[in-house]
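Handout, page 2. Input:
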Amino acid sequence: MEEGHTSSISQVLLGFGEDGQVSNFLGNPGEQVAPLEAEEVLHHSTKLLTILDLAGHPKYLKTTVSGLVGHAPDFVMLAVEMKACLRGGDSVLGIMSREHLGIALALNLRVFVVVTKCDSATSDEIDLALESLHKTLRTMSGKSTVLVRSHGEIEQVVSMVSVVPILVTSSVTGLGLALLRDFLFLTPNKMASLLSPLPLVQPPSSSLVRIDESFDVDEVGLVLGGTIHHGAVSVGDSMLLGPHKDGHYEMVKIRSIQVMRVSSKRAVAGQSATFAVRQQRPRSDSAPGRLQVSPQSRKELSWDSICGTKKRKMRKGMVLLSSNTTTEPVAAYEFEAEILLLQNPHTMTVDYEPVVHIHTIAQSARIKHISSREDRQTTHGTYGSDTTVVGGGMMVQEGMGVQQQGSSASASAAASSSSSQVITPVRRRAKVGLRFLYKPEYISVGDPVLLREGCTRGVGRVTSVHYSVGSV
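Output:
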């Protein structure tokens, strides 16, 4: 609070009416009115957006990465101050702005840029700053950029994945705020590209909820918050919660659901929701090892005494799974992933221990083996376009590997002769075997992976999972 830095992920519900006007406030223009409660916003809105405020300070990069990987946003808005654009050169985007933009592009997320505080510059300075910004964004993303000037242009660019829209705004003069509101209103409502396009391991009828937070609410008990990745969850459903530290899952029952802070009977794929759960009790109250609780005293007892499941056992990365699956879910310590290095000032070798982010999972893992792969001529799909510069000056360019800007040809030659058990800054891609250090996790083939340790960044996809739970 003293520094004014965002240190946690905060969510704001933004509602729109049929005419595209924000419905969070009701009143005449110019009047000061209190914001509506979430239930009232839901009642007066035809479209709802959840805005996630992520941290921009380097100290809280882990929080930002968790938001980008775990919450699966449909769009990423990068806010850039006009004064930064006026500096030109590499200073148009700061170090952390480049870092965040590089991660978002590598994860194949849609990005648009909002230039703020434009009232502090003249029209000539704005034109000069935008020219520098266009050049920087095109170099980093490999995509074309469009300055949005009218409502008609919004309708054209909002659905174009190969374009990075730019909006110019000022909260002092109100410049561009109407265009920004219209842009948010017209954004397509669909699942984010972080959800794997590969065939899912689970059958389509199954449900998967990835947990990112947990609460112990008085008179309610354990409440879990997360995003539904596929399927649907209804009140009264029996689901499997886990994996716990020993790899097992336990049966729980969904007692109530809230979506957008409003009670609901059902939540579907793509929605973030909270679930009040209770451990599934056996049909026979006389089952051995079970606490006998009378209806009168049940309300007075805590979740711990009734269910034996404590909030401290809950953690990010756990999942809720349908209990009607034909095979019992398992947890894995080891997996393989195809990794593309975005930024790596050092050589990455076997026994290197980066932090691995997979959806809401964030855990250190040890590299067990590295299989070198022949560099591809271009980068497509998950990793961006043919010519891309991403975070920290790492270049992905057609006909080349990942190369540090300004590095000499001798460095490339040295890297090409290195052992296959290392990943150097000039090697673009490798197949890496990793093992979680502390506890098994629920992961599937096709899940997005982000490696983070110091200045090292790498992204990729899980290619295989070894379901053998054991100690490290």
